[in-house]
Amino acid sequence: MESYCLFCKSGQEGHIIDLLKRSGYAAFSPLAVRSKPEAGGLRRTRARLLPGYVFFDAEDSPDWNTILRYSGVLRVLRYENGACALHGEDLAFVEWLKRYEGLVDVSQVVKVGTKIAFVGGPLVGMEAKVLKVNKSRKTVQIALGGEDAMFRNIWCSIEYVEKNADIDTLHQASESDI
Asked: Where in the chain is the domain with CATH 3.30.70.940?
């Protein structure tokens, strides 16, 4: 089974997923839990993790003629060598998303000196580097892949579960610089 990615008009992801499923493909567009400020605190909502992107799996070579005629599909993502099937870091990223059924929930973190450590949620143990932390929006930007990766970084929601922690108490927690 191979995994592929389509780029489509933002807002059309659900429509494209339905069309792909009707054609026999397993398809999804990843969602992320986001915190939105509102009176009285933050409200959690779901939003597209990668607006405009739809991933799907196929046993055999996809019917590109049909897929590219779907209203809303702009193009198939391809590598420089012309290959369409995801591989390397991109495939690892999609497999990670599938483990969470396409929903990247809030990860719990603790502050350890000038670092944060992931102690709960989907980012625990993930091979990624924290690029930025937005404390007011409670999000982190993480680097996923190198120069050759289609998906280089994403923003994920976090929540602090303790104000400070002792590094010795974290054992196997995943650490990243703030």
From this structure: 1-105
List of E strands, 94-143: 103-104, 107-112, 115-120, 129-134, 139-143
Q: Where are the alpha helices (DSSP H) in 3-145?
A: 13-22, 64-67, 88-99
Q: What average pLDDT does the segment 5-17 reach?
A: 96
Residue 71 backbone phi and psi in degrees, to 5: -65, 125
Q: Binning pLDDT at 50, 70 and 90, where does residue 166 land?
A: low
> What's the pTM?
0.83
Q: Which fold is adopted by the domain 1-105?
A: Alpha-Beta Plaits (3.30.70)
Round to whole Å and give the CA distance between 95 and 167: 30
